[in-house]
Specification:
single chain; alpha/beta; Rossmann fold; Arc Repressor Mutant, subunit A; 7-stranded mixed beta sheet; 13 helices; globular; transcription; NreC/VraR/RcsB-like_REC
């Protein structure tokens, strides 16, 4: 597990603090898995120790926009794949809040996905950083405060995606086969192609093994493949692994 790489330091470099001089940040958690939100809350939400105050949670796009607008947190931890349009839709509908010079709401993507298209999509949408769910609690807390300050924060491998994307003027080609898959099916596809067992995928995505099996069957059917070995070759050829 790697520490997130942090760039674009603010000029002032000062952290928000409470009256006692301790740093403090108000956060909203946006993720469609209740168990994951509960785990993050337990890990970072002990305000006296961490300085992080979780002021709201949401499980889909509409809930997220409502909660963020009502609470005006400094930082939103945003999952990429959400019912109702995904993290990019949340960013689009919260554009005015991000642009508020007096009280900006900043977004840090926190996702199981480390796919280039997911990273680039939310960064283009206005997120200040992107870290994966393998991050440690202490690193996540540090990343939240860095984003609060205005820094950009990325897990090391993901930073390269962003640099490559913004250095290139070429639009990525459309993959009609990949477009047939839902976001969740893409997540399962990548994990299967990396050699994960069904139980491991279920644990990482907070879903049942039966649901994993259903997603795999759907992927094989849509791509007209016969087994996970063909699926792995298909994903490798498209550099999705």
């Amino acid at each position: 597990m790697s520490d997130p790489t942090e760039t674009n330091a603010t000029a002032a470099g000062e952290q928000a603090a409470d009256g006692a001089g301790r740093r403090h940040v108000r956060v909203v958690l946006v993720d469609d898995h209740r168990m994951f939100r509960t785990g993050v809350q337990a890990e970072i939400g002990q305000t006296e120790q961490t300085g992080v105050e979780v002021v709201g949670e949401a499980a889909d796009v509409d809930q997220a926009v409502t909660v963020i607008t009502a609470t005006r947190p400094e930082v939103v931890l945003l999952d990429v794949h959400l019912p109702g349009g995904g993290g990019v839709e949340v960013l689009r509908r919260c554009a005015a809040l991000m642009a508020d010079a007096a009280q900006p709401v900043r977004f840090l993507a926190l996702s199981v996905s480390d796919a280039a298209e997911d990273v680039i999509g939310v960064i283009r949408g206005g997120a200040r950083g992107y870290v994966t769910k393998t991050i440690t609690g202490s690193d996540l807390i540090n990343s939240i405060f860095r984003v609060q300050e205005g820094d950009a924060v990325f897990s090391p491998r993901l930073a390269g995606f962003v640099l490559d994307a913004f250095a290139s003027t070429d639009a990525p080609p459309v993959d009609e086969d990949l477009d047939r898959l839902t976001q969740r099916e893409r997540e399962v596809l990548r994990l299967i192609a990396r050699g994960y067992a069904y139980k491991e995928i279920a644990k990482q995505l907070f879903i049942s093994v039966k649901t994993v099996e259903s997603h795999v069957s759907a992927v094989l059917r849509k791509l007209q493949l016969s087994n996970r070995h063909e699926l792995t070759r298909w994903a490798t050829a498209r550099r999705l692994v």
